[in-house]
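Re: the 99-residue chain
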Amino acid sequence: MANVSSQLEHLQSKYVGTGHADTSKFEWLQNQHRDTYALYLGHGSLLSYFAIAENESVGRVRFNMLEKMVQPWYVPQPPTTSASCLSSTTLIFLQWTAC
């Protein structure tokens, strides 16, 4: 079992998209987003399919997908725990779960 976990750690350090124990939901989704566009760009037939569906040239579709691939998929919002934005029910729950 130790051999399998060491191989997994090696793969996770080598490839960004494989994730690790500290990977957030945001990072995982962003990797999925970029991997999906990389797949579309790598297969010419899929790229042609999207070009026909969007009524655009293959070059324009490729450019648009590359632009989307580079841009962040989602900007995470910092968690807010101020009392002004929480309901009374949430405050009671937070008092019960507070350490």
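The radius of gyration is 21 Å.
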